[in-house]
Design goal:
6-stranded mixed beta sheet, alpha/beta, globular, about 30% strand, about 260 residues
């Protein structure tokens, strides 16, 4: 039981976005996908979601390929939160969250009791129940992100793929979102999340997949992936490390390229 990707290669606009990347997401696990800008994180997530066909390589979902599953079955099994998710501004918040139930409904059928219950649960999880009746266009950017996460959760899929779900959120809602993703994983869902904050990635993820220039350069436990060598070679930074209440943290401290007049310590 897992999403297993092998040898994924993708070229976009004449540029290699992924170069023979392997990835694995298991139920009950939070996989953090990290790397510098342009490393291929979003491309990988789109391939795993079945939204982008790779030039080479394969993705299998609990042993089945996307063609074997079919589009509707895949949409029920894998929920995707895009980095640039958009919503029709005139739609109500609960209508937007309800879109997550479309893979479960027959054509032209309305919401049933199971759909309404899933919508209520998702809105409560994302702290957007108080937005009921408001239109999506009346919300702030961070509030819209929480609504769109609720839409993804409403699918109640086996796997959740979230591309930068913390973008635009204040620190409190960032922590709440990651705690929510951990609780979803604890209930059995496989969660893959693209993150830029390395400290949060180290704290909340079970495994990290590090991408650099389209290649997978490390895959494993956070403390093994975020070693000093990788931080310097991939991110160009050094870090301060520590722990609190038994949980590790690291802080990006300074760049590894220093000018002649730069005496930062």
């Amino acid at each position: 039981m897992a999403i297993v990707a092998q040898g994924l290669s993708v070229t976009l606009g004449g540029r290699i976005a992924l170069d023979r990347v392997d990835a694995r997401l298991e139920p009950g696990q939070v996989l953090g996908i990290i790397g510098p800008n342009g490393a291929g994180k979003t491309t990988l997530l789109r391939v795993l979601a079945g939204l982008l066909k790779p030039d080479a390589g394969s993705v299998r979902y609990d042993g089945a390929g996307p063609r074997e599953l079919g589009r509707r079955a895949l949409a029920r099994r894998v929920a995707f939160l895009a980095q640039d998710s958009t919503a029709v501004w005139s739609l109500s918040v609960d209508a937007v969250v309800g879109l997550g139930r479309l893979p479960h409904r027959q054509a032209f059928s309305g919401e049933n009791e199971a759909d309404r219950a899933a919508i209520v649960r998702a809105m409560a999880h994302c702290d957007v129940a108080s937005f009921t009746g408001r239109t999506i266009g009346a919300l702030s950017g961070g509030e819209r992100r929480r609504v769109l996460l609720a839409r993804a959760l409403a699918v109640e899929a086996d796997y959740l793929l979230a591309d930068e779900p913390l973008a635009g959120l204040d620190p409190g809602h960032q922590l709440e979102t990651l705690q929510l993703l951990r609780s979803i994983a604890a209930a059995g869902t496989g969660v893959a999340v693209v993150l830029h904050d390395l400290s949060l990635a180290a704290r909340f993820c079970d495994r990290l997949l590090l991408l650099h220039q389209g290649r997978g350069v490390a895959d494993g436990a956070p403390d093994a992936v975020l070693d000093d060598t990788s931080l310097a070679e991939v991110f160009g930074v050094t870090a301060l490390r520590g722990s609190h209440a038994g949980e590790p943290f690291l802080l990006s401290w300074q760049t590894t390229t220093r000018g002649p007049n730069d005496d930062r310590r």
